[in-house]
Amino acid sequence: MAIVVNMPRLSDTMEEGTVAAWLKKVGDKIEEGDILAEIETDKATMEFESFNEGTLLHIGVQEGETTKVDELLAIIGDEGEDISGILNGGGNASAEVKEDKNVAETSSEETSETSDAPSTSSNLPEGVIVVTMPRLSDTMEEGTVATWLKKVGDTIEEGDILAEIETDKATMEFESFQSGTLLEIGLQEGESAKVDALLAIIGPAGTDVSGVASSFSTSSAPAKKETPKVETKSEAPKATPAVSAKPSSPTPTPVTANGRVYVSPLAKKLAEEKGINLTKIQGSGENGRIVKRDIENYEPAASAASVGKFVPSGQEDFDDIDNSQMRKAIAKALTNSKFSAPHYYLSVEFDMENAMAFRAQFNSIPDTKISYNDIVVKACALALKEHPQVNSQWFADKMRLNNHVHIGVAVAVPDGLVVPVVRFANEQTLPQIGAAVKDLAGKARNKKLTPDEMQGSTFTVSNLGMFGIDTFTSIINQPNSAILSVGNIVEKPVVKNGKIVVGNTMKLSLACDHRTVDGATGAQFLQTLKGYIENPVTMLV
Q1: Domain count, the chain
Q2: I want to staple 411 with a disulfide (CB 3.0 to 4.6 A). Which of 4, 317, 444, 523 is the partner?
Q3: Is residue 47 part of a domain?
Q4: What is the pTM of this model?
Q5: Cα radius of gyration rounded to whole Å, the chain
Q6: Do the bridges between strand 198-203 and strand 482-496 make them parallel or antiparallel, or are there none, so unpaired?
Q7: In this structure, what CATH number is given to the domain that contains residue 513?
Q8: Active-site residue among 12, 78, 154, 518?
Q9: Does 259 fall in a domain?
């Protein structure tokens, strides 16, 4: 009997999954434990194994396409078994899921009202694949096409990079899992669309797909119907003057209709570091795309001479930069925190003489290196055990006092900020904390963090001391009740034993949610923290 395999829920925040790659094809024999596919979910790509044996009879979600949890992913059964009744009864209809197997028995006929591109696959011309906007993170609601690396009519090979997609986490290269010809682009550069909206159509060269895009649009659920929005933008009148304004220049700058520059991510990063205006550069890459060598070979004086453009002093100038998906997500989360949690701030200044001597002695041990931030994290973890109210979390119907201590450590990345979590920090040694923070920070900068590594914090530490910042305040990382802002160690005159001497101090600021942490409670926590940081040897007892 045929078994319906639904899109599994692979994390507690997962609502939809994207098939990154199918490792089996229709007609293949499946053994229990075989890896069926690689599923992109939240912030990681996970292997999805079969809990059934049989023949793979049907694939309901093509590579690169997205569907909701519990929607049809595949059908496994006996070779040659007739499954037309299942498909005609609603290809995306959710069957009763067996939670221990991530599979489902065939349900009674049930028509899905939220079908997307895969549901219309039977109406597509032979060999045509509809590629939709994938969900690349748990908070992603829409994606923006930063750059198309292929154009309509190009031959596509499996593994080719089709486009660069801006999500709320990063700008990612989006590769094709199909071979064929790029027949249609549903979303132009600089335009945004919701997850599951039409992105592109791939198929045999010369295939007429004029009706596919419209049928995709009309058959999509209202929440997913993005094609009309895309068409409105692509036909906007402002596109014409943006293109026609360029011919007068002998070396036209590679700019899209909406003012977006054709540039590789690496070249864009180098240009930002060097302060180079990309519109001054003629790209030498494919289709005039600006690449790394263009930035490295750029000479401002020569460029100005070739363009023949005089810029008078005092002329107003600015660059508009579209908000990335990560920046939008950060803005949404922090705005919600700032205006929903009643923040108040407590500032202190600690004597760091003993901490500096302690660190120097500790690092004299071979193969051992700890930072001041490691000392702060360890001290916070121990202080939180003594003040569980500060280690609490606020929810709409309850306040949770955590008996464990998971400390989030804010890490700056090029596109924003992420907060990986050091778990059970109070139980770890200083070298263990140092190794954990270093590993997590490296993964964050390389975009390799898993969802589990960014979830579950009970308290957060944000340190800008290494950037020379003396004092600052932070916004609470909800649902936590507090966040500690750590400044730079400053050498300055201090009074000791009635005399002015040279000392080293560090300023810290504790932001608290007044719904869970009263002022006196926050002050007591800082007093305990002061004892550990000013006398760090007590953390080893």
Answers
A1: 2
A2: 444
A3: yes
A4: 0.47
A5: 28
A6: unpaired
A7: 3.30.559.10
A8: 518
A9: no
Length reported for the chain: 541
CATH code of the domain covering residue 50: 2.40.50.100
Query: Terminus-to-terminus CA distance in the chain, angstroms?
Result: 64
| Residue 39: both structure tokens together | 């599923």
Looking up tokens 């570091």 gives: 273
Asked if 180 contacts 208 with a C-beta cutoff of 8 angstroms, the reply is no
Could you tell me if residue 369 is inside a domain? yes
Sequential pLDDT tens for the chain (541 residues):
788 888 887 765 678 889 989 999 999 999 887 888 988 875 567 788 887 889 999 999 999 899 988 889 999 999 888 888 888 764 443 333 333 333 333 333 333 333 333 344 446 788 888 888 877 655 668 888 988 999 999 999 887 888 888 877 667 778 787 889 999 998 898 888 888 888 899 999 988 888 777 766 544 433 333 333 333 333 333 333 333 333 334 344 555 544 567 777 778 878 888 888 888 888 887 667 788 788 888 887 544 444 455 556 678 888 888 777 677 878 888 888 888 899 999 999 999 999 999 999 999 999 889 999 999 999 999 999 999 999 999 998 899 999 999 999 999 887 788 899 999 999 999 999 999 999 999 988 887 888 889 889 999 999 999 899 999 999 999 899 999 999 999 999 999 999 999 999 999 999 999 999 999 999 999 999 999 999 999 998 7
Two tokens, residue 366: 């071979």
- Are the beta carbons of 324 and 415 closer than 8 angstroms? yes
Is residue 404 among the annotated active site residues?
no
58 labelled catalytic: no
